[in-house]
Write a structure and sequence with these properties.
With about 220 residues, the chain is α+β, with helices and mostly antiparallel strands. Helix content is about 30%, strand content about 30%. It has one domain (about 1-215). Strands 1, 2, 3, 4, 5, 6, 7, 8 and 9 form a nine-stranded antiparallel beta sheet that branches. Strand 7 and strand 8 form a beta hairpin. The relative contact order is 0.19.
Amino acid sequence: MTKTLVAVAFVVLNFYTYHYMASNPVYPERKSFDAFPLELGEWACHEPHEISDKIQQNLGVTDYLSCRFTRPQNRVGVDVYVGYHASQVREEGGGAGENAIHPPAHCLPGSGWDIIDTRTVPISTLGMPQQGASAKRLIIAKGNARQLVYYWYQSRGRVISEDWQKIVYVGLDRALQGRTDGSLIRFSVPILGNDDAAAEATFQDLASRILTLLPDYVPE
């Protein structure tokens, strides 16, 4: 019921915004991820992953960082993805468009992963200045492999984890600011030997280094 109400509210708000308020879309200045440092202390990404043009088009992403960061003292590589969308709506005709950010929790089962645990957790401890910052924390499994996944939406000065929040704020900010830009941030950490705590510590260490750099690439 809640999802239905949110969807209806978004359609009504977006229709009103497009026809009565939205006129000139705003695209804030930002750095390209081509300039993102690939060495962060003991962590390094030696071979950034290039996403094909077809997949970029399907994702609707404008710019992205896709890297496996490793460090010498262990064999755990952390996959980091930050996808920046300059717009999340169609430029003409109104309505939600192909540029909208796809929730990872919807895509993972299609890739063969089972979500065996999911929760919403605060991430202010990572040094994020945004009040009430939260993320989705998942444990996923495929055969004998398990991973710890963190993801959230970082958009226009907010760090949020719920899909309905993303939808509502896209319509609201389009009406008030002319902006619909936003990003998806995702960390995937292998869980070795059923040691969830070690995977958690690995995430915390790398994430705290990356997140301090993001404001130049994900504008507030």
